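Input record, target 12 of the design panel.
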């Protein structure tokens, strides 16, 4: 089976967020096999895509668990389909996933994802969260996947050195930390920590922006954002809130391609 490693939300190699993409053939594979491949790839996510009734079936695995929503590995999958001639330039791919039908459209040199908004509502911080982050947040919210923690400023976000062992005990997929941007040209910055899902820090997290867009829209008075995820690799996303949907656009770069022997 064809296998790729692709840097998503990046316009140059070794930036953005790397994902593996496996193009499944007709052979039957089960969840354990996919989990084993994801563990072998040892990236934050490995995507498994298969042709299905004219559309595509798509699943995502971290090295330790299957997840229900992943942005950067979806962008990487669409990029792989374009490079392999399975998706024509300018076309839209529809992916059937555990979070419903998601689309990826190639337009103007970018790939734009259409995902559901995952609104975070105010929540008391769980035991250990503030201690794990080592700083006092402005406010804490929670959606069906993650805690969303607003900090006072961008420096607070960039300088965080969380206690991952403590974060691992919090029973959510991950923790999004965000603030208004002070770097010119950006609206907000974020980082994403998910040690409980096998990822201490995710470099660029598309699905986190499904919560960040509806969070910042009323606070910034706008629905179109340029966002920066301030991980060591860094990543830039153009994000649009459209009702109960979030559109995220970015580029991707193929780092390697090969053959997975089954």
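The sequence produced for target 12 reads:
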């Amino acid at each position: 089976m064809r296998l790729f490693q692709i840097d998503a939300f990046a316009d140059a190699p070794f930036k953005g967020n790397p994902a593996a993409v496996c193009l499944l053939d007709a052979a039957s594979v089960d969840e354990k096999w996919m989990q084993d491949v994801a563990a072998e790839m040892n990236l934050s996510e490995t995507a498994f895509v298969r042709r299905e009734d004219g559309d595509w079936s798509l699943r995502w695995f971290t090295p330790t668990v299957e997840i229900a929503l992943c942005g950067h590995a979806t962008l990487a999958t669409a990029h792989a389909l374009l490079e392999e001639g399975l998706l024509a330039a300018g076309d839209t791919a529809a992916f059937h996933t555990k979070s419903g039908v998601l689309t990826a459209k190639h337009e103007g040199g970018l790939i734009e994802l259409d995902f559901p908004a995952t609104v975070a509502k105010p929540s008391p911080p769980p035991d250990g969260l503030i201690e794990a982050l080592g700083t006092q947040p402005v406010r804490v919210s929670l959606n069906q996947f993650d805690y969303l923690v607003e900090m006072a400023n961008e420096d607070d976000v960039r300088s965080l050195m969380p206690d991952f062992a403590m974060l691992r005990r919090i029973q959510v997929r991950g923790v999004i930390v965000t603030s208004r941007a002070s770097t010119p040209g950006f609206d907000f910055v974020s980082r994403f920590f998910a040690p409980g899902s096998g990822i201490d820090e995710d470099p660029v997290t598309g699905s986190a922006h499904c919560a960040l867009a509806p969070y910042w829209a009323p606070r910034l008075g706008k629905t179109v954002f340029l966002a920066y995820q301030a991980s060591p690799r860094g990543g830039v996303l153009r994000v649009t809130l459209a009702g109960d949907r979030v559109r995220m656009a970015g580029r991707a770069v193929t780092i390697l391609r090969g053959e997975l022997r089954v």
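The chain has a mean pLDDT of 96.
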